[in-house]
TrEMBL record:
Keyword list, A-Z: Transferase
Protein name as it appears in the record: Diamine N-acetyltransferase
Domain N-acetyltransferase: 10-172
SUPFAM superfamilies: Acyl-CoA N-acyltransferases (Nat)
Annotated organism of origin: Myroides indicus
Domain of life: Bacteria
InterPro entries, sorted: Acyl_CoA_acyltransferase (IPR016181), GNAT_dom (IPR000182)
The keyword Transferase is annotated on this UniProt entry: yes
One Gene Ontology MF term: acyltransferase activity, transferring groups other than amino-acyl groups
Record has Transferase as a keyword: yes
Length: 175
């Protein structure tokens, strides 16, 4: 199990029971439901159960969720996930969320993504990782482009947001 992976000003760590309120806030933030495909609120009870099982390794759970923290203050910024882990085909999906708008566009997501890309390649021996990003999410698209992800397709009217349907773009990084 990963304990801590570090970059310039942030580190990534495994989920802890103390993360209950933070995960609860993120999972129940209506503004984030669009990017997480969440449809209903999560209870603290369900999140507590999830955290109790967070000790499973990526081979067992097929996912790995890490907490993004400030190196100096230990402030929790967000989460970064490896999901749909497929060791046979050496691929997985990746997703990232920085909770507060005030912490976005400061390089936090960039540092976290770099760590996870390196981890996926060097430790999980993945041959590719992918991300699904809303077509109108220009900051996320720019972030993934920065690390060499290529747009490989557009899923038209893929996600319902309110009364409209939005396109989702699939990005892929092949090592």
């Amino acid at each position: 199990m990963i304990r801590r992976l570090e970059a310039e000003s942030i580190y990534l760590r495994a989920l802890e029971p103390e993360d209950l309120e933070f995960v609860y806030q993120i999972e129940n933030d209506l503004k984030l439901w669009e990017v997480s495909n969440t449809q209903t609120p999560y209870s603290r009870f369900l999140i507590r159960q999830y955290l109790e099982n967070a000790h499973q390794d990526i081979y067992e759970a097929k996912q790995l969720r890490l907490v993004i923290c400030d190196k100096k203050t230990d402030e929790v910024y967000g989460l970064i996930d490896i999901f749909d882990y497929d060791p046979k085909n050496a691929r997985a999906g990746i997703g990232i969320v920085i909770q507060r708008d005030t912490n976005r566009m400061k390089g936090i997501g960039s540092q976290a993504l770099k760590i996870v890309i390196d981890y996926a390649y060097q430790h999980l021996l993945l041959q590719q990782i992918y991300a699904n990003i809303a077509a109108d999410n220009t900051s996320s698209k720019k972030l993934f482009h920065k690390f060499g992800f290529a747009e490989v397709g557009v899923k038209k009217k893929w996600n319902r947001v309110g009364d409209t349907y939005k396109d989702e773009v699939m990005y892929q990084l092949i090592f």
